[in-house]
Amino acid sequence: MSNKKYGKISFISTLKLLSKAERRFISELSELRNMLVHNASNVNFSLESHFSSLTKEKQKSLYSALNLRLERIESKNEIVEGVNLLIKQPKAMIWSSLTQCLSSIYIQDVFAIKRNEILNGALEKIKVAGPIEIRQEDLPLTIGLKAFASLTRDGVKPAP
Question: What are phi and psi of 81, to 5 degrees?
Answer without folding.
Answer: -150, 170
